[in-house]
Design a protein that fits this description.
The protein has 17 helices and twelve strands.
């Protein structure tokens, strides 16, 4: 197959209009590279990159020495690509840039990698392909040689490893992959991820990441404006995930109440109490453990049938904590719980926090994106009254190549005061630019990955209205699923009422247990149904849906929809597949 160049903008006709190119363009680069290569390899490289072989002022092709016809390259049709000119089994990483005269080999190798990636991307969206080629761990260990060795592997072996890795990877972009909160694949986000890896820099100072630091500043300000904070005032940071954002929130709340803890540690503060709902993310307790507060100091508040925190129980538990000598310092409300997708009543919780002078945080890692939807943002009414939000998250709903999480803080300067250490080898005070853009000192990490560009570029490509449309579509699909199964034979909803988010929680009851009169026996059998159906899904590779117990409820399916490739037909397929795989249970 003819290869598309890295700089091709117009497909097969990309090289037609080339008269205005300057010496700084890829064409000129290719010509310069071609002059260094013998045997016609340079001209073949130009053809491979689709930037043309003729340029005004270039030596005519007729003056080139005759070339020996290359062997077949494996393309499906006649082409002038140069794959056959490079034998990867004879090459190693040391033959690639920055090695001398390695430009052509590097570009051909990377083009080969791109071909592998493109084939995988196209296959991932094909409903006729498997979501997963499942193998048990011991089988997969034996399928390929995954061991690390002392001697270097050839580039041919490296390419084999790339293909094998993707062969057994989960196709998270597949329209019938519903297993996690973040599914699907956005092409612009993917391009941004590639660019970020190519830039290969860090986020601790402006001097090493000028554009990325500015994009983070612009994006965080825009998000604070969407929350409703005046003029987008406040602070924030991109973090590796929602768990870290929640720990940041707890860290800041403790510092706000007891700033001396930064230097003197927990021995100088009274025993603290944090509050969160029974259905909140486990990272709240994990953060308390990491910060030395202790998991026993995290008090779980009761929820109603739909999974929303009960404000009256929150106030009761705050008073109980105070009476036992604990100091309430932190309440984490949830906008979109992991399992039920429930939104805690933020206005009522905010009133209680204000009454007892407790810091309020909103964990919006799953549901915060609804702020971008005019139809659904009412579910977060009151979010503008709290001190922190992690996170109004378009990316989990809208398929960044990996989750991009943020912490947004209303009080400007608090993160800097809490976390800075003034490392002079990075944060010199006599630099020649505005030091407020050296954001690394307000982060817990020193090296911080560039996550901003994925979200920023996707936002540029879609616009806010594009994010809104995808969010609304996902909620429409979840409502379609709910309406289709709520009265369907063999299905029971875990809780009554239309789902608040895209989470649809249900049991499938195979014919063999639908009419069991012994409730305990029925419950025992039902607990085993979802795991068996899920295992069969993975072995057949047809679809993937998560399951779990919750409290006293036995295993049930938790269907979440965040994949923009999913359609009504995919929802119908899921229902039919569950019934097919569970019919004999």
């Amino acid at each position: 197959m003819a290869q598309q160049g890295f700089w091709s903008l117009g497909g097969d006709n990309a090289g037609a209009n080339t008269g205005n190119q300057s010496p700084s363009t890829p064409r000129a680069w290719c010509q310069a590279a071609a002059s260094k290569l013998s045997g016609g390899l340079g001209s073949k490289l130009c053809a491979l990159l689709n930037v043309g072989e003729l340029e005004k002022g270039a030596e005519p092709a007729a003056k080139q020495p005759p070339e020996t016809e290359a062997a077949a390259c494996g393309c499906n049709k006649t082409c002038n690509c140069t794959k056959a000119s490079v034998v990867f089994s004879d090459l190693y990483s040391t033959d690639l840039l920055p090695a001398m005269d390695s430009d052509a080999k590097t570009m051909i190798f990377l083009q080969e990698v791109v071909d592998i990636l493109m084939a995988y991307i196209v296959e991932s969206f094909d409903r006729d392909t498997k979501v997963i080629d499942f193998h048990y761990p011991n089988e997969l260990l034996q399928k390929n040689n995954w061991e690390l060795q002392n001697e270097p592997a050839s580039l041919d072996e490296i390419l084999i490893s790339c293909r094998a890795t993707l062969k057994y990877a989960i196709k998270t972009a597949h329209p019938r992959y519903f297993n996690q909160l973040s599914t699907g694949l956005d092409m612009v986000g993917l391009a941004a991820d590639w660019l970020t890896s190519t830039a290969n820099t860090n986020m601790f100072t402006y001097e090493v990441a000028p554009v990325f630091v500015l994009l983070e500043y612009v994006t965080l300000k825009k998000m604070r404006e969407i929350i409703g904070w005046k003029d987008g005032q406040g602070d924030g940071i991109f973090s590796p995930g929602g768990a870290i954002s929640n720990m940041y929130a707890m860290l800041l709340a403790r510092f706000k109440m007891f700033p001396e803890v930064k230097e003197k540690g927990m021995s100088c503060v009274p025993r603290l109490a944090a509050f969160t709902s029974e259905h909140s993310h486990f990272s709240i307790k994990k953060g308390a453990a990491a910060l030395g507060i202790g998991t026993e100091s995290v008090i779980c508040i009761k929820v109603d049938e739909s999974g929303q925190m009960i404000p009256a129980d929150l106030e009761r538990r705050i008073l109980e904590a105070k009476q036992t000598g604990l100091v309430p310092f932190f309440v984490s409300a949830t906008a979109g719980t992991t399992v039920y997708g429930a939104f805690d009543p933020l206005i009522a919780i905010s009133d209680i926090c204000k009454k007892y002078n407790v810091w309020m945080h909103v964990d919006g890692a799953w549901g915060g994106s609804l702020l971008m939807s005019r139809r659904h943002r009412w579910k977060l009414d009151g979010v503008e009254r709290q001190g922190q939000l992690s996170d109004m998250e378009p990316s989990q709903d809208d398929v960044c190549p990996s989750a991009v999480l943020r912490l947004l803080v209303r009080e400007e300067g608090l993160m800097q005061s809490c976390n800075n250490m003034h490392a002079v080898y990075l944060f010199q005070q006599d630099k020649h630019y505005d030091l407020s853009y050296d954001t690394g000192d307000k982060a817990l990490q020193c090296g911080r990955h560039v996550d901003i560009f994925k979200l920023w570029l996707m936002w540029r490509a879609k616009g806010t209205i594009g994010f809104e449309a995808q969010i609304d579509k996902c909620l429409e699909l979840s409502e379609y699923l709910y309406n289709k199964i709520k009265d369907r034979e063999g299905y029971e909803m875990v809780f009554n009422g239309t789902p608040q988010h895209t989470n649809v929680c249900f049991w499938y009851l195979p014919p063999g247990i639908r009419y069991m009169e012994d409730k305990e026996e029925r419950k025992k059998h039902l607990h085993k149904v979802a795991p068996v159906i899920k295992a069969r899904m993975m072995e057949y590779g047809t679809t993937m849906v998560s399951y779990q117990p919750q409290g006293d409820k036995v295993n049930f399916f938790r269907m979440v929809i965040s994949n923009p490739a999913a359609t009504l037909e995919d929802i119908d397929f899921l229902i039919e597949e569950i019934e097919r795989l569970g019919q004999d249970l």
